[in-house]
Structures are given as C-alpha cells and as structure tokens.
Amino acid sequence: MEAILEVQDLHVRYGKVEAVHGVSLSVAPGQIVSVIGPNGAGKSTTLNAIMGTMDGTASSSGIVRFLCEDIGPMPVEERVRRGMCLVPETRELFSSMSVLDNLRLGAWPRRRAGDRNCMDQLETVYRLFPRLEERAQQDAGTLSGGERQMLALGRALMAKPKLLMLDEPSLGLAPLIVREIFHVVSRLRSTGVAILLIEQNARAALQVSDHGYVLETGNVALHGPAQELAGNRRVIDTYLGLGRQAAA
Ligand code: ATP
C-alpha cells in the first residue's frame, strides 16, 4: 500500500547542533503509528519538521512526501490545505473563546477554501466527545486539562484531515483521562484518518498503534509492528518495565 506520509533521512539542526540525525519513517492510509522515546530524543522536532512549523533557528534536510508529493518547499498553510493537521503539545486553544467557536476555527481552512459543508464534522466530534457538546458555550479557558485535550483533538478533526499528528496527547493528564483520550484515538481509525502519534507514554501509545518507532538521541533505534515492539525486551526494560512505571 502506498504510504500517505513518507519521511526519508530527515536531519534537523538548531544552529550548529543537529537534533535529528537521519530519521526515516512512514505512515500508511488508515494506520496509527507511534513514535516513542525519552525527553529530548527529537520527537517534537521531527513532527514540526514534517508539518513545517519549526522555529526560526532550525533548518532541515531530507525528504518528506505527503500523498506521494515532496512537500519540502511547501508552506504550512498549503500542507494544512492538503490534509495535514498537527495538535501541538501546548494545545494552543483560544482561551477567551467558547468551545464551539474554537471548533469553528478548526473548520476555517475548509471554509476559506470555499467548502460550504465545512461544519459537517461537528456531529462526529460531538459523538466522540459528548462533553464538548455539553460545554459548547463555555469559554475554552475554563475547561479541565482533559477537556482541553478533547477540544484540541476535536478542533483538529473539524479540518477533516487525512493525516493527524498528535504531540504527546497524554501530557499532564490523569490516568483515567489518558485512557479516555487513547480510546478516542483508536476509534478515530474507523473514520479513515491516518495518525502519527508522539508519546512518552509508550504503553498507551503502542496499545492503540499498528506500527511503532523508538527514537533515541535523534535516531530511530528500533521500529516494527507495535505488538512486536511491546514484547521487545529492550522496549520493556526501558519504556514499559516496572522501574519505568514506578518512575511515572
Ligand atoms: P520531549 O519529550 O521532552 O518534548 P522530544 O523528544 O520531543 O522531547 P525535542 O523537543 O524534539 O525532543 O528536542 C530534541 C533536542 O533538540 C533537544 O536536545 C532540545 O534541547 C533541542 N531543541 C529543541 N528545540 C530547540 C530550539 N528551539 N533551539 C535549540 N535546541 C532545541
């Protein structure tokens, strides 16, 4: 099957320091792919390079193909228009706007492109996250951490992306909420969207994924089917073991 996203030999440097050293990965249509690894491994950097949202001091080389096209020179807006969407670690909601208005903003790129049905995902989003419908008129700034993550995901889905990239969706959330978020992520598979998931919570990520990559100090140390990785001795000891659970 032709990959929806293919990254080949990606290098990213901040000034003179290289943070990502030749990462290659791919995501097939409808797949959930996770990238796990410790702090500072280069996970967010990789995601931002794919999305074209690196900060001004960063430069990259390598090939990023989306829907079989090299998107290297493409500005972020064009990547969004073609169906890429990134939910950053910071979630970046508009706190003084209502939940519904934040969702409307998610649909804005489609509206600008002349799509008259740009709000057609609202029902799906409310079905996935009933709490967002209950709180539609509430200011986003007054939501709980878990609800904010739901809103960030819901807003991304309003754009009807072909590839959804999630940077640490479990960050700072209580275990029960993490379960809820990952449950929704696995349900998204049925909507046909492909997902590239960056996570430190390796257990939860591998459970919902088809394929996984372990990123360590800017290199892919291991990759394979998620179930195989979850059974790999090194992954168990470093990312899933009891010591790791205790530390968490
Ligand atoms: P975390 O899980 O902690 O977010 P990560 O795997 O996402 O970690 P990155 O945030 O991609 O890792 O960082 C990779 C390396 O690049 C780190 O050494 C970090 O200090 C460095 N780095 C990240 N952003 C910048 C920046 N704007 N300027 C300089 N160095 C940076």
Structural write-up:
The protein is of the alpha/beta class and 248 residues long. It has 2 domains: 154 residues, P-loop containing nucleotide triphosphate hydrolases (Rossmann fold), CATH 3.40.50.300; 74 residues, no CATH class. It contains 11 helices and 10 strands. It has a 6-stranded mixed β-sheet, sandwiched between helices. A hairpin with a 2-residue loop joins strand 4 and strand 5. The chain is globular, with a radius of gyration of 18 Å. The model has no long low-confidence stretch (mean pLDDT 90). It binds adenosine-5'-triphosphate. Adenosine-5'-triphosphate binds next to helix 1.
Features of this protein?
248 residues, alpha/beta, Rossmann fold, 2 domains, four-stranded antiparallel beta sheet, 11 helices, 10 strands
- Bulk shape: globular
Bound molecules: adenosine-5'-triphosphate
Mean pLDDT: 90
Strands of the biggest beta sheet: in what spatial order? 6-7-8-3-9-10
By CATH, the topology of the largest domain is Rossmann fold
Main sheet summary: 6 strands, mixed
Q: List SSEs in N-to-C order.
A: EEEHEEHEHHHHEHEHEEHHH
| Strand proportion | 25-35%
* Discrete helix count: 11
The number of strands is 10
How many domains? The number is 2
CATH architecture of the largest domain: 3-Layer(aba) Sandwich
CA-atom Rg in angstroms: 18 Å
Structural class: alpha/beta
Low-confidence stretches: none
Secondary structure: helix percent: 25-40%
CATH class of the largest domain: Alpha Beta
